[in-house]
Amino acid sequence: MAEISAKMVAELREATGLGMMECKKALVEAEGDIKKAEELLRIKSGAKAGKVAGRTAAEGAIAQFIAGKVGALVEINCETDFVGKDDGFVAFTKAVAQAVAESNAADVEALSAVKLASGQTVEEARKALISKVGENISVRRFVRYETPDALSVYLHGSKIGVLVELAGGDDALGKDIAMHIAASKPVCVSKDEVPAELLEKERVIYAAQAAESGKPANIVEKMVEGRIVKYLAEVTLLGQPFVKNPDVTVEKLLADKKASIKRFQMFVVGEGIEKKVVDFAAEVAAAAKV
C-alpha cells in the first residue's frame, strides 16, 4: 500500500472540505488513490447528511446578493449559533445567495441542482458542509427580485434580512427603508395589501371587546372602525412612523422624496420553526445511569 503523506491528506482536504482525519481514513481505505478516496468521502458525506436530516435546524443566517437590477435574499439554517458563525457556513450562504440571483431557480428543489462557482451543485456543497460540521443544514427559503427600478438591502447581523424594490429616491433612502422594515416589521406595503382574513380576524376581536363596553351598537361600530384604522397604520409600511423620525410616516417620507416602494421581503432566521427544548440535565442524568 502506498504511504499516506501529509501532502496527500492536504490535497484531499482541499478538494472535499472535510476533516483531516476523515481524509486520511479515506486515503487508507483507497490505498492512496486520491480520486477513489474523494469518491468514498462523497458517498459517506451523503450518508452522514441522511443521518442528521431529521434534526431541527432553527439557527443559521440570512445572506444577500445584488448585481445591478437583480437581487436575492436567502435563509439557510443549521442547528447551533456556533455553526452559524463558521467561516465555511457563511461562505456557503453567500454562494447560495449568488446562485439564487444568477440562476432564477423556481424553488428550493430546483435550486439544489444549480452549480455554484466552486463547480459543486448547491446540494453537493450542502452535504459536504454537513459532513464537515456535523449538523443538519437546510436551504429553507429565498426570494429573487429583478426590476428596472432600484434594489436595496439591509442585514441586521446575520439574523434579519430585508430586500426592497424602490422606484425613485436614492440609495440612502432605500437603505433607510430596509432598516425601518427590519425594526418595525410591517406585514405589507399598503392597507390594500393586508390579507382579508387577517383584517376580518382583527375586526371580530375588536367587535367582541367593544361590545363589552355596553355602549349602543352605532358607537360600538365606530369604536371598531377606529381600532381597524389604527391597526392598519401599525401593520402597513406606509402607515408606520419612520423609525429615524417618528414625526413623519413612511408614506410622507416617500412622498417628499418622490419615491415609492414596489415590494419588500423580510426574512428572520428560524421564524416559524418550532425549536426543540433540550433538557441537558436530564440527558446527563440518563447517561450516568448507563
Write up what this structure looks like.
There is one protein chain. By secondary structure, the protein is of the alpha+beta class. It folds into 3 domains: 47 residues, Ubiquitin-associated (UBA) domain (Helicase, Ruva Protein, domain 3), CATH 1.10.8; 133 residues, Elongation factor Ts, dimerisation domain (Tetrahydropterin Synthase, Chain A); 66 residues, GTP Cyclohydrolase I, Chain A, domain 1, CATH 1.10.286.20. Helices cover 49% and strands 20% of the residues. It contains 12 helices and 8 strands. The mean pLDDT is 86.
Set down the secondary structure blueprint.
Layout: H1 6-16, H2 20-29, H3 34-52, E1 59-67, E2 70-78, H4 81-84, H5 87-103, H6 108-111, H7 122-133, E3 138-146, E4 150-156, E5 160-167, H8 171-184, H9 196-211, H10 217-235, E6 241-242, E7 245-249, H11 250-256, E8 260-268, H12 280-289
Helix pairs in contact: 1-2, 1-3, 2-3, 3-7, 5-7, 9-10
Task: Give the beta-strand count.
Answer: 8
Q: Provide the β-strand percentage band.
A: 15-25%
**Sequence of strands across the biggest β-sheet:** 1-2-3
**SSE series:** HHHEEHHHHEEEHHHEEHEH
Globally, the shape reads elongated
Q: Uncertain runs with pLDDT below 50, 5 residues or more?
A: none
CATH class of the largest domain: Alpha Beta
Number of helices: 12
CATH fold call of the largest domain: Tetrahydropterin Synthase, Chain A
CATH architecture designation of the largest domain: 2-Layer Sandwich
Distance between the termini: 41 Å
CATH evolutionary superfamily of the largest domain: Elongation factor Ts, dimerisation domain
Total tally of structural domains: 3
The major beta sheet can be summarized as: 3 strands, antiparallel
Rounded to the nearest angstrom, the radius of gyration is 25 Å
Helix content: 40-55%
- On the 0 to 100 scale, the average pLDDT is 86
> How would you classify the helix and strand content by structural class?
alpha+beta
